[in-house]
Amino acid sequence: MNLNRASKKNHNMKEKILLTSIDLMTKNGINNTSLADIAREVNISKGTLYYHYSSKDDIIFDIADNHLNIISEALLDCLKKINFNFSTEEFVLVVLKNISNIESTGRIHMYLICEAIMGNKSLRERIGLKYVEWRTTLEDQLNQIVTDKSQAKGASFLLMSVVDGLVIQALLKGEKVPYEEIAKFLIDYSNKNKTTSL
How many whole angstroms separate alpha carbon 181 and alpha carbon 140? Predict the structure, then answer.
């Protein structure tokens, strides 16, 4: 019983450290957030922090894993909403709206991507594997919906790129993103190319 309570207390502290780290890194950036900043904000000693996380990279990996799982779950939830009576345009629209609506994690997503690109090789590998998982999930779903199966792979890459771009635009808050118009353009352009190549 006491072991269970201690385990739960450790889990709660680790979760508190993680949530605080996300807040600080979202506000200040990954490079501008130190372990001392995190310990101070959580109101614990650096020794207690090191008990749960031996390095800043360990915290970043946990943040990345949690974040990537949130986005993966959102993608799978989105795909579950799609039925086989959807047109390709409706499918594209649902994917664009649902994936890019994860605004609460958009900023940390961009920080993690930047950290991975700027030299954190382990993080880059983790994110890269998750992107492959997302894209193949999209491709599998597209294969069940589109008539021309040869286009599913290319379309899945395009959708992933569009979603990343929309996350950046949502963060910049320059203007409202017209999802319906984007979906319509993608499908119309695809259909136009299909008819002209025949």
Answer: 24
Check pLDDT > 70 for residue 88: no
User: Largest Cα–Cα distance in the chain?
Assistant: 72
DSSP state of 151: G
Distance (Å) of CA 35 to CA 57, 61, 119, 143: 10, 14, 19, 46
Q: How many beta carbons lie within 10 A of that of residue 15, not counting itself?
A: 13
Residue 152 near residue 88, CB atoms below 8 Å = no
Q: Which of 24-28, 120-124, 154-158 has the lowest mean pLDDT?
A: 154-158
Q: Are 96 and 183 in contact (CB under 8 A)?
A: yes
CA geometry: angle 101, 106, 111, nearest 5 deg: 165
Q: Could you tell me the pTM of the whole model?
A: 0.66
**Nearest 5 degrees, angle CA 80-CA 82-CA 85?**
140
CA distance 51 to 45: 10
The amino acid occupying position 144 is Q
What the block records as the tokens of 132 is 């492959």
- CA dist 28 and 22 (Å) reads 10
Judge contact between 30 and 111, C-beta under 8 A.
yes
Amino acid at the residue 61: F
| 179 Cβ neighbours under 8 A, 6+ residues apart | 93, 96, 97, 100
